[in-house]
Amino acid sequence: MPMLSRRGLASASALLSAPFILTRAARADAPADTLAKIKSAGKLLAGVRFDFPPVGTVDASGKPIGFGAELAKLFAQKLGVEVEYVQVTSSNRFVLLQNGGIDADIGPTTPTVKREEVVDFSIPYVWDTVVLIVKKDASGDVKAYAPPRHVATTQGSLTADYVKEQVPNADFVYFQEYPDAISALLSGRVDAVSTNGFTAPSFTARSPELKAGVPFFRDPWAISVRPDDSKWRHFLNVTMQELWLKGTYQELYQRTLGAAPDFHMWSEFRLQPGIGASS
Amino acid sequence: MQWGLIWSYRDALWRGLALTLELSAVSIIGSFVVGVGVGCLGATGGFLLPRLVRLYTELLRNLPLVVKLFFLYFVLGMDAIAAGLIALITHQSAYIADLVTAGFRAVPREQAEGAWASGLTGPQVFRHVLMPQVLRVIRPPLTSQFIEVVKNSATVMLIGVQELTFETQRIETETFRGFEAASTATILYLLVSLGIVLLMQRAGRLVR
Question: What is the CA radius of gyration of chain B?
Answer without folding.
Answer: 20
